[in-house]
Amino acid sequence: MRSAALVLSLAVGQASQWANAQAVATPPAPAAEPANAAASESSADDGTTAATPAPQRRPLPPTVLRRLPRRPERTDEERQELAAQLREIYRKTPSTWPAPAVDAGVKWQEIGLLPDVQHPEDNPLTKEKVALGKMLFFDPRVSGSGQMACASCHDPDLGWGDGRTTSFGIDRKPLDRNAPSLMNAAYHTSLFWDGRAESLEDQAKQVLLNQDEMRSAPADLSAKLGAIPGYREKFKEVFGSEEVTIERVTQALACFERTITGGRTPLDHFLKGRKSALSDEAMLGLDLFRREARCMNCHHGPLMSDGEFHEVGLSYYGRKFEDLGRYDVTGEAADVGRFRTPSLRNFKESGPYMHNGLFPTARGVLNMYNVGMPTIRRHAHQLEDPLFPKKSSLLKPLGLNNQDLSDLEAFLEAASEPYLRMRPPELPPAEPQETAAK
């Protein structure tokens, strides 16, 4: 049997491989478009069916990728032996685990169980408010067109996303970004890929009022919902009066969204002491995740996200599909191309991946991180450009082999859980039942 000391030094020798990196000018072809992101159909006012173009597929920008020689693969016997040794190491409390591979200055937290959700003092949790928020979440009448519900882009059957590369907005207008999953959104300190909202209440309000997304208006929303007797009754039950305001609508929505949480994954069972909850592959993947794969630089803590913003080479700066990310919120040159680190909890259920939905599969994401993500070429006219994006120094080529990538996938799957089916609630009719029956 190999000693535990040998297991604890698995990462030794990786750094020497970086010196052998070779520049590769042509990136791999982008993965195929998911079937549900193809052109779709919508009904026109005259009853005919019109084709709606799907968001255009984004090719990778002109980049330089740096590859490392992949390390040799292990035999099945070696993998089983190593998994058994790692299981002995990781069966102890996380405070005794091997130190993760993180760069100097990274303020990391150990992977752990999700804490209880904290509700704001000005929007406390009540079951009545959750029920009202659930109704509003599934009701398309909250949008200006009466056709878009929150669930249109955050479908519980699709991992609380929409399964598309980038979403559709009002009147089926293609939007620029992928819809983030709402699972565990209660734990985020900033919302949207660019972090422009600091609370779920603010996030809901921005979407409702956005002219490209739901195109509602406070007065119209109040009048529309206030004309529905069932909603007037619910608002009185929750808030003490029948008055419908956008603030009350967003409070109810946020209260419901804070109940969309996980914490029942194989990884959670492992952390609670059931050490058989992780397969050998996931066990190997856990150690890779924390060390050789360097994932803990950005994906750590109970949420498996640092909540920060990083530039990973996908801003398309100066080209079609350009998205400057956090810069559009702060105006700071250092934020050009930076996007919020997504949580890796329930990662397997939340594709396509990245802010622009570039990768339909988890393996595509892992392959790109394995080569350190793309470095955008700087052309002559951009040499003095103060806004030219700077890729995060945390990204480095890794040299992982196919076994390693499969083990990382197994670990990410172990950090995911099947979504519970949620039946949409019965929505209050526009007029009382007895009136409608006449």
TrEMBL record:
Keyword flag Oxidoreductase: yes
Signal peptide start-end: 1-21
GO cellular component, as recorded: periplasmic space
Protein localization: Periplasm
Keyword Acyltransferase: no
Residue stretches of biased makeup (Low complexity): 19-55
Alphabetized UniProt keyword annotations: Electron transport, Heme, Iron, Metal-binding, Oxidoreductase, Periplasm, Peroxidase, Signal, Transport
Pfam families reported for this sequence: CCP_MauG (PF03150)
Domain Cytochrome c: 128-236, 280-416
Molecular function (Gene Ontology), one example: heme binding
Function: Involved in methylamine metabolism. Essential for the maturation of the beta subunit of MADH, presumably via a step in the biosynthesis of tryptophan tryptophylquinone (TTQ), the cofactor of MADH.
Protein name: Methylamine utilization protein MauG
Native source organism of the sequence: Lacipirellula parvula
